Amino acid sequence: MIALVSSPSFAWPVLLLAGLLEIGWAIGLKYTDGFTRLWPSLLTLASMAGSLALLGLSLKNLPLGTAYAVWTGVGTVGTVALGIMLFGEPASVLRIACIGLILAGIFGLKLVG
Question: What is the pLDDT of residues 73-94, one digit of tens each?
Answer without folding.
Answer: 999 999 999 999 999 999 999 9
